[in-house]
Design goal:
This protein is an alpha/beta fold. It is built from five helices and six strands, in the order H-E-E-H-E-H-H-E-H-E-E.
């Protein structure tokens, strides 16, 4: 009987955390079509290039560790961010509701230790990715700072022809 109660409490707690992390703000997100985003990682993460498929695996929680054994910490912008919509369209191929259901399902099936961490601004994303070992995030190209470690996607940087995370491509 105690086991059933503990499991039920655990599920309620997980659900409460997910609601707080993934519940969208009640405004319509932007289209995500006029922006390009850069993928930024913690400075000590030993990766300079990822295939687009590998990037999808990381962002979808299917790859949870870097090659050095460090846990991937996914930092995702709040629902009203234009760059979030681009990531939902290109990487997740989902709308906002499908995205929330996707992560809730992964948490309930214990496929991931934790869902994405919500960040409220590009500044917050840039700051946290530098202090959380193993962190990965996305920021508008216009918000990339000189000390950011930007990862190439299929050998391309933002602004290169064929870069997969540019609006309009």
């Amino acid at each position: 009987m105690t086991t059933i109660v503990v499991r039920g409490v655990r599920r309620v707690c997980i659900f409460a955390v997910l609601i707080g992390v993934l519940l969208p703000v009640m405004s319509e997100p932007a289209s995500g079509q006029d922006i390009a985003v850069a993928i930024v990682v913690h400075p000590q993460t030993q990766v300079d290039n990822l295939s687009f498929e590998e990037l999808k695996r990381i962002f979808r929680g299917d790859r949870q560790f870097w090659e050095d054994g460090r846990r991937v910490t996914l930092l995702v912008r709040a629902p009203v961010a234009e760059e979030r919509q681009l990531i939902l369209d290109r990487i997740y191929e989902m709308d906002e509701n499908q995205f929330r259901e996707y992560w809730i399902g992964k948490m309930f099936r214990a496929e991931v230790a934790a869902g994405p961490k919500l960040v409220y601004s590009a500044d917050m994303a840039r700051e946290l990715v530098t202090v959380i070992p193993g962190a990965i995030t996305f920021v508008p190209v216009s918000e990339v700072s000189s000390d950011s470690k930007v990862v190439r996607i299929d050998g391309r940087l933002p602004g290169d022809v064929g870069y997969p995370l540019s609006g309009g491509t």
